[in-house]
């Protein structure tokens, strides 16, 4: 069960993973728009900001495209095997499945409320916020869940890359880590640029 959740790419790849993955990205964008959950880069989750549906969709597609393109270039550069573009892009789309769950986090305003509470209590920024102990507990639980979902996403993206590129061991970890760092920076810049054009 754990192997299936962390590495489904042994069973699903190619066009099938691309279709399923892109469906998940679209669903994530729609729910994020409704719940006020935004994904400003490849791995970040932001609640309390309600994007338009177009902004949400464009941003999530940019995140997927950026990490996929960078990992594809890395794969064809360093892999000794034949690498198919559809495998890289398809499995990376499917790897974003945890953020379908994350897109629901903004349905509760506890995290946003807790953040404003912390800012007021510690830095006197914003305005006074009244928050109950149950809301604080819920906010902490949601933050822990966000961290777990982010870790799951990162593991899935790595396993997707490893399976699709056939690069193994420490070499694959190093290549993936560098690629991910580059993708985070580029996805922020790309999303800002694209959003400024379409919104």
In short:
It contains 8 helices and 2 strands. The chain has helices at 2-6, 14-35, 53-78, 85-94, 98-102, 110-123, 133-165, 169-198, and strands at 37-38, 46-47.
Structure, explained:
This protein is an all-alpha fold and 199 residues long. It has one domain (2-198). Helices cover 73% and strands 2% of the residues. The chain has a two-stranded antiparallel ribbon with strand order 1-2. Strand 1 (37-38) and strand 2 (46-47) form a beta hairpin. Helix 2 runs parallel beside helix 4, helix 3 packs across helix 4 (85-94) and helix 3 packs antiparallel against helix 8.
Q: Largest sheet, described in full? A: 2 strands, antiparallel
Question: Order of SSEs, N→C?
Answer: HHEEHHHHHH
Strand content: under 5%
Structural class, by secondary structure, is mainly alpha
Q: Portion of residues in helices?
A: over 70%
Outline: elongated
**Neighbour order of strands in the largest sheet:** 1-2
The tally of structural domains comes to 1
Rounded to an integer in angstroms, the radius of gyration calculated over CA atoms is 18 Å
Number of helices: 8
Key traits:
about 200 residues, mainly alpha, two-stranded antiparallel ribbon, about 75% helix
Provide the fold topology.
Layout: H1 2-6, H2 14-35, E1 37-38, E2 46-47, H3 53-78, H4 85-94, H5 98-102, H6 110-123, H7 133-165, H8 169-198
Antiparallel strand pairs: 1-2
Helix pairs in contact: 2-3, 2-4, 3-4, 3-8, 4-7, 6-7
């Amino acid at each position: 069960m754990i192997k299936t959740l962390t590495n489904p790419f042994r069973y699903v790849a190619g066009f099938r993973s691309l279709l399923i993955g892109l469906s998940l990205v679209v669903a994530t964008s729609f729910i994020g728009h409704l719940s006020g959950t935004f994904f400003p880069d490849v791995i970040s989750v932001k609640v309390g900001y309600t994007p338009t549906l177009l902004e949400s969709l464009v941003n999530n597609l940019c995140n997927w495209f950026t990490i996929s393109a960078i990992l594809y270039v890395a794969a064809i550069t360093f892999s000794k095997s034949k690498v198919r573009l559809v495998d890289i892009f398809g499995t990376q789309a499917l790897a974003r499945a945890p953020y379908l769950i994350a897109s629901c986090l903004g349905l509760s305003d506890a995290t946003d409320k807790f953040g404003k509470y912390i800012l007021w209590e510690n830095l006197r920024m914003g305005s006074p916020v009244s928050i109950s102990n149950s809301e604080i507990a819920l906010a902490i639980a949601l933050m822990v869940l966000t961290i777990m979902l982010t870790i799951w996403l990162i593991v899935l993206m790595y396993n997707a890359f490893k399976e699709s590129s056939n690069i193994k061991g420490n070499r694959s970890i190093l290549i993936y880590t560098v690629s991910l760092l580059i993708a985070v920076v580029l996805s922020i810049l790309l999303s800002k640029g694209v959003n400024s054009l379409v919104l």
